[in-house]
Amino acid sequence: MKTENIPLDILYLQDERFRISYFFSLAKLVLSLKKIGLTHPPLAAWRDNLLILVTGWKRVLACLELSLSPIPIVCLEEQSDLKLFQKAFYENLAIREYSLLEKAEIVKKLLHFGEEEKSILKHCLPRLGIPPTAYHLDAYLAVAALSPEMKTFIHEKQMPLASVELLIGFSPEDRQLLLPLLLPLSQNKQKELLEDCREISIREELPVNRILAAADIQEILDAKKLSPLQKSNKIRHLLRRQRYPQLSSRQERFQTALRKVDWPRDVSLHPSPFFEEDRVTLQFSFRNEQELKSCLSKLQAASANKEFSGVFKPSADD
Amino acid sequence: MEFPLTARILRNTPEVAHEVIDDPQALIEDVRLSRQPVELGKRYLLLTKQKGSFVKPCPCTPHYLGCNYFIINLETNCPLDCSYCILQDYLTNPLLTVHVNLEDLWRELDAFISKRDRAFRIGTGELGDSLALDHITENSADLISYFRGKNSAIFELKTKTVNIDNVLNQQPAPNIIISWSLNTRKLAQDQEVGAPAVEERILAAKKVTLKGFRVGFHFDPLIRYPGWEADYEDVVDLLLESVNSEQIAWISLGSLRFPPDFVSIINRRFPASKIFHDEFVRGLDGKYRYFKSLRVELYHKMVDYIRDRAGADVPLYFCMESRDVWWEVLKKMPRNKEEIERSLTYPAADLKE
User: Fold this and answer.
1) What kind of fold does domain A1-96 have according to CATH?
2) How many A/B residue pairs have CB atoms within 8 Å?
């Protein structure tokens, strides 16, 4: 192992066998290099007369951006790709958290370089903060096998594993259909849309293209006046209603009953989550006795209305 | 090796290879790290000592009404493979396990019973099937002998099997209940892998009633699917035509419920099963349950089927349900789990041999 000053054009960067990270910004590193130079040399190794980078991809790419060459590089004589990759793995493990996509890449490459599955399960997954089960190993391998477009989407939207797993559960064609709907949504709403789509698809034995071909969904997709976010949200609501017909109907009856009794706007009435309990919660605020009396009077009028019982009706037949 | 139960199990399994291991943790970890931990775990029988307490209160679930049941952790895990079985997710040790230090169990039970000031229910069928391994453990005979005459303890053996030979060799006692988990024929066939057909279970129940035992039945989990109403009615018909309702100690009803993490196990192990893809919402305890009106519909139908055929005297109760549901279906609102316990224990405890 020796450190040499090596011109960057000697490095064969097309060979990415040891590369873990693909999504990063170089801005801060470029600034750091400008201020203090390269203090921590990358590691490289010779393969078939080509010098291949083992660690320090960000550093080398930042140096390239600054045309900083030659730079000090530690050339390793290790012949085992697995051992070299372990250096890349452990070097970064000590200093930062790996992202979901990096973890997937690490797991894939450890297997590729010949690490035993049992060893990955027992040692590597816990070190990456992943539960040591074959299920989780497979989930990360599936992430690693996704298309670059999907990986970019996952990175940009910072999708958590639970949502990525849902996405992976769809065919590549279905994922392409879902992607434009997911793009404008927040993480939670993405997950909700994916879950609803999956449940409807399984329950009703419908492929995603048939679910999205429904007339009411097509009408939304074709609407020129709606923004992508508005389209996604409207479709999300339709899917929710399709997945939860009883719950949606109960919610609608509750809201309809409140409208019919002219429920005061400044008083909120909340059912228990998913109407699991019969009790409802009433919430309002007031600044003085007069406001309280006014509010109570409005409440009395609303609750005296015969339609008010609809708030508590569990089904339309009751 | 020094425990009599170990010797008995080895005597009953002469064809099975066995190995003495110092520490089962390495084996447990190997199985847990395997690609099919649930399946593989069912192929090992670990005989070990119960180092903690045998008797524990049934954990039930927060925010819903329990029944003050006590469980005896004599055996954990089960050779059957029901798709909805929570043990797939619940047990950290995936091996079929029998705790062989029965002598400690009897001592612990003596102390436990002496401290209780009222009748209570206790059983072995929560973390495993009470009779699935009984042909090799013969535990049912010891347990029935132990509990006979201890009338404050209503002891239940709960099973899906027809492994009743050892039970039939015992004399019945009023505080000993042999109970079966039942479901529709279709669900038993599609979802309860390795379990005998419903007809066989009911026939086994009939045999133990003819011997003089009282029996219990658990329709849990009740599961919706196209045609569930007629299928459940058929099972109730068959059950109440076969078994004298006066010998039924209780029938429990519970609907399908599962924790969120369970879904990933199901998707992997039973990808074709559609029972987990219905209108499930998060309950107050965080587990998925059918939307309440769907549960109420299930229970209403079941209660009607049972009451129409067995009358109003068969004790019915819900497992892990809310007071609202109790009221809506049975027009009873138990104040607490002790009240449910009382309703299920006094009739049995009052019986004379």
Assistant:
1) 3.90.1530
2) 65
Q: How far is A86 from chain B (nearest CA, A)?
A: 22
CATH number of the domain at B117, please: 3.80.30.30
Residue B233 sits at the vertex; the CA angle it makes with B230 and B238, to the nearest 5 degrees, is: 125
Q: CB-CB: which of B265, B267, B294 is closest to A246?
A: B294
Q: Are A143 and A168 a contacting pair, CB within 8 Å?
A: yes
Q: Quick check: A244 and B294 CB within 8 A?
A: no
CB A55 within 8 A of CB A41: no
Residue B180 domain boundaries: 4-350
Residues composing chain B: 353
Q: Note the ipTM here.
A: 0.88
Q: Please give the C-alpha separations between residue B229 and each of A13, A205, B223, B234, B254, in angstroms, as whole numbers.
A: 66, 22, 10, 9, 15
- The answer to whether A215 touches A258, Cβ cutoff 8 Å, is no
Q: What is the mean pLDDT of chain B?
A: 94
Q: How many domains does chain B have?
A: 1
Residue B33 C-alpha, separation from nearest chain A C-alpha, in angstroms: 6
Q: Mean pLDDT throughout B325-340?
A: 90
Cβ neighbours of A250 in B, within 8 Å: 291, 293
Which residues of chain B have a CB within 8 Å of the CB of A202? 274, 277
Q: Does the global pTM surpass 0.95?
A: no
